[in-house]
Amino acid sequence: MANSLATAVERLSDGVDPRLDDERWRAVPATDDRAPAIVVGVVHDHPASAHRVRAVADAFDPDVVALELPRLAVPHYEHEADAVAVDVDGRYDDVTPDEHGTVPATDGGTSPAGTDEMTAAIAAAPDATVAGVDSVGWRFGVRFARLARSRDASLATVRRAAKGAWNVTRSALAVRFGRDDDHRHGGGVDHDVSPGADPSAQAADEGAQISRSRSLLGALERPEADVLLDETREATMAANVDAHRRTGGVVAVVGMEHLDRIADALA
């Protein structure tokens, strides 16, 4: 059973580690028929984000880890998490990469300090159920149709958005059955800061990337198809996370651009 939400929030809010800035995660209280949840925003494949999801999972000990992944992609990340090294106390090794950028591990596996945030979340909550909540299923289809009607979307817009949804599924198939270099989220993203860097440097680099992304999105008018697809994905992820809250406490890991809307929908 998950730890108390208040206890987890107190542990995460001590202000010591800048990677745990409370603007990058949101706590969702329990209701009469729902367990609490913590939604963690991430910059994909960033070491600060990997650290944050591990810290949240460690503090909250969730019953369910809900990931911004299609269900088809989950088994790969579960397999990757099995290779993550732990020390004799069962805590995760945050070790410094060597001169080749390789993160050593005590048992021949891979330290979470050098993993993507999805693998890190699974490894940090080994007893939790793992769920891929960014899936193109019946919840997605119903919401897609409703949003398209409410927006009076043109046929061309619907087709472009549907193509984007198919690309999500195709990427999941590549992860599930494809080559190793297809497996990481989005093919893997290289960042200018290493997993062994100082926490403040990691947090600063991550924050700069978040600011640049928000500035870019704010300066451009997004295509209607992209908006339709993202709103459908966010509504679907929120519904899927909410469904898992019926069974226990949830840690949800989503891209930073989705954090506020998904957390608000749950609240």
Main β-sheet, spatial strand arrangement: 1-2-5-3-4
Based on secondary structure, the structural category is alpha/beta
Percent of sequence in beta strands: 5-15%
What share of the residues lie within helices?
40-55%
Taking pLDDT < 50 over at least 5 consecutive residues as the criterion, the unreliable ranges are 86-110, 179-187
Task: Determine Rg (CA atoms, Å).
Answer: 18 Å
Report how far apart the termini are: 21 Å
- Give the tally of structural domains: 1
Task: Write up what this structure looks like.
The structure is a single chain. With 267 residues, the chain is of the alpha/beta class. It has one domain (5-266). It is 47% helix and 9% strand. The chain has nine helices and five strands; from the N terminus they run αββαβααβααααβα. It has helices spanning 5-12, 47-60, 74-82, 117-124, 138-150, 155-177, 199-219, 224-244, 259-266, and strands spanning 25-28, 37-42, 64-67, 129-132, 250-255. The protein has a five-stranded mixed sheet, sandwiched between helices. Strand 1 and strand 2 (37-42) form a beta hairpin. Helix 5 packs across helix 8 (224-244). It is globular. 40% of the residues are buried. Mean pLDDT is 83; it is low at 86-110 and 179-187.
Question: Could you outline the blueprint of secondary structure elements for this entry?
Answer:
Blueprint lengths: L4 H8 L12 E4 L8 E6 L4 H14 L3 E4 L6 H9 L34 H8 L4 E4 L5 H13 L4 H23 L21 H21 L4 H21 L5 E6 L3 H8 L1
Parallel strand pairs: 2-5, 3-4, 3-5
Antiparallel strand pairs: 1-2
Helix pairs in contact: 1-2, 2-4, 3-4, 5-8, 6-8, 8-9
